Amino acid sequence: MAEAEDIFLRAKQRTFTGLTEDEQKEWRGPFCFIQAADPQLGLMKTWREGDCDGGGDEWTDEVQLTQQAVEAVNKLSPRPKFMVLCGDLVHAMPSTQYREGQERDLKVALRGTDPSIPLVFVSGNHDLGNTPTPETVAQFCNTWGDDYFSFWVGGVLCLVLNSQLFFDASACPDLRDAQEAWLEGQLQRASQGPGVTPKHILVFQHIPLYLKTPDEEDDYFNLQTATRQSLLGRFKRAGVKAVFSGHYHRNAGGFHNGLDMVVSSAIGCQLGEDTHGVRVVVVTADQVIHRYHSLEQLSGRGMDEDLRKLLQA
């Protein structure tokens, strides 16, 4: 159990196997990682029954799918540098009936992750509430780790953001302002120094900036236009390569002005025509290449051969 618990301790401390933070700032060649989203324990039954607000009393399906994802990722060679879960870890909102059980069972499912593959947790609207409060943010941080932070891996700077503070921070404006100040400092240092210049800058958040185009109408599944355009401009100026998100329970996204907006479907409940899966991301010196793999495919054949070859360069 000590080793299993260490998975979550390392997630909170953001420590990566065998290297110091300064060593992680050095480019050491191509690598891969896994982006997953929305295991959302409890949603599948409630979606089938049309009671997404009041249900959530069963989550066996999501536990099995999460275990399948973990087993498939563990078999990959070379091993991913990390696996990031981009929000909505569970379906039950903070302080509701099934929250504790869903979080407990998700941790049990994730404990099978190989210790050499660190886990990174991103907060979603179901993790914090649609209108987060200081209390719900603190609960998330206590259970899964900070709601926003940065880490380096293989010469790449990764920024994890709390997108709910962009969506509705009316109950916690001080937390929104703190993240804004921190983010601005991170982007300035990454683009202007002092310090090491990252090979790439990647952002992870739950809510996409947009689903298909930057000028699309505001929707439950994207960020509001003013916030979206502001972030797009700031990310572009800083040289951000890609933004990875979930929330939509379908694959979507687009490429605009050199910035890749990646929207990945779910480990758990599917709201479109995609299958349960995760995204394999390969990072080379010049590119960030990614492809969604179904859990069945990843379990049976591993990552696509052309992606594997990029890792051998």
TrEMBL record:
Family affiliation: Belongs to the metallophosphoesterase superfamily. CPPED1 family.
Signal peptide: none
Gene Ontology MF terms: metal ion binding; protein serine/threonine phosphatase activity
Swiss-Prot/TrEMBL keywords: Cytoplasm, Hydrolase, Metal-binding
Gene Ontology cellular component terms for the protein in this record: cytoplasm
Matches recorded under Pfam families: Metallophos
Catalytic reaction list: O-phospho-L-seryl-[protein] + H2O = L-seryl-[protein] + phosphate; O-phospho-L-threonyl-[protein] + H2O = L-threonyl-[protein] + phosphate
Keyword Cytoplasm applies: yes
Main localisation: cytoplasm
Subcellular location, record wording: Cytoplasm
Entry keyword Hydrolase: yes
Cofactor(s) demanded: a divalent metal cation
EC number: 3.1.3.16
Name listed for the protein in its UniProt record: Serine/threonine-protein phosphatase CPPED1
Domain Calcineurin-like phosphoesterase: 71-250
